[in-house]
Amino acid sequence: MEKGSKIFVAGHKGLVGSSIFRLLQKQGFSNLLTRSHKELDLTDQVQVKDFFAKEKPEYIFLAAAKVGGIHANSTYPADFIYENLQLQNNVIHSSFVNGVKKLCFLGSSCIYPKFAPQPMKEEYLLDGKLEPTNEPYAVSKIAGIKMSQSYNKQYGTNFISVMPTNLYGPNDNFDLQSSHVLPALIRKFVEAKENNSPSVTLWGSGKPKREFLFVDDMADACIFLMQHYNDGEIVNIGTGEDVTILELAEIIKAEVGFNGKLEFDSTKPDGTPRKLLDVSKIRTLGWKATVSLRDGIRTTLAWYRSNKSK
Ligand code: GFB
């Protein structure tokens, strides 16, 4: 990518897209193309076709997706598989038709088998059964990977696919029903402190382990790979370290300054027991995460406190 290249950041208002957009701007990329959901519905084939024919973007970050936490994924499986398949089919195919120089497709660590050996290497893809709470979402993301690889193979495109671990940061979704665990716990602890509640309830047992990557590290990795990686084989993006949900809750509790108790709602699912990425491939390529979990939580908590009433 040159500083003047026309770069389309699909999903520029979301958690990852907004971070990629900010970082590209900071690095001096001056020809950034964006569309709000209202201006362009990426699930609509005709709209996407017309947009690409008119704008002719050179590079694409496909950060638009329907995403959500464990409850949203298990409650709305049809929406997750339909919307993701539609939008990625439209964007990837139009990128090929219009000669896009390079596209970065964003997958997810939930594409790996539920009981994959830990940490999970890229080659474990399609080696076993998926986690049922997010299988339709994972299948859509696997389809995106295979589609990108197939276009590379058949048509010689340069479409790369990156697999982030659980992400968090400013602009995350803090809705308690549809969010991921980290923003949900920030909100729960902040509200419990404000209301002098005696306790905060965690879903499940608190025993599952998750790896959390601050979104600005994710954006940095995506831009790094866009500049230095030209291969269809997937690349994991993570920190290489994980914590239990209980440990995560203790960190957020301390950062918020809440002194009450923790309770567990065992009617809610735990999901996959562990989901730690093997990050040796991206480290060999020359990239490493820099933001610690505690620092990332502090930044996200500050952002939430100043934006929650907006
Ligand atoms: O982040 P999360 O919703 O999704 O949940 P996954 C992670 C773990 O935190 C689960 C527990 O064991 C939850 O039961 N948890 C505890 C909570 N308290 C809460 C809470 O208040 N809210 C939430 N949401 N969880 C998602 C997938 O899986 O991860 C997606 O469904 C995607 O497809 C995403 O891959 C990254 O990590 O289990």
* Overall geometric form: globular
Estimate the mean pLDDT confidence: 97
**Which stretches are poorly predicted, pLDDT < 50 over at least 5 residues?**
none
CATH class (first level) name of the domain at 7-169 and 212-240 and 276-290: Alpha Beta
**Architecture of the domain at 7-169 and 212-240 and 276-290, according to CATH?**
3-Layer(aba) Sandwich
Main sheet characteristics: 6 strands, parallel
Query: Which H/E pattern describes the elements?
Result: EHEHEHHEHEEHEEEHEEHEEHH
CATH topology-level name of the domain at 7-169 and 212-240 and 276-290: Rossmann fold
Strand percentage: 5-15%
Structural class of the secondary structure composition? alpha/beta
Tally of helical segments: 10
Radius of gyration: 19 Å
CATH 4th-level superfamily of the domain at 7-169 and 212-240 and 276-290: NAD(P)-binding Rossmann-like Domain
Name the strands of the widest sheet in spatial order.
2-1-3-4-5-10
Count of extended strands: 13
Written overview of the protein:
By secondary structure, the chain is α/β, with parallel strands linked by helices. 43% of the residues lie in helices and 15% in strands. It contains 10 helices and 13 strands. The protein has helices at 15-26, 45-55, 70-75, 77-97, 135-155, 181-194, 215-228, 245-256, 280-285, 293-307, and strands at 7-10, 32-33, 59-62, 102-106, 159-164, 166-168, 199-203, 209-210, 212-214, 235-237, 243-244, 261-265, 274-275. A 6-stranded parallel β-sheet has the order 2-1-3-4-5-10, sandwiched between helices. Helix 2 (45-55) runs parallel beside helix 4. The model has no long low-confidence stretch (mean pLDDT 97). Guanosine-5'-diphosphate-beta-L-fucopyranose binds next to helix 3, helix 6 and strand 7.
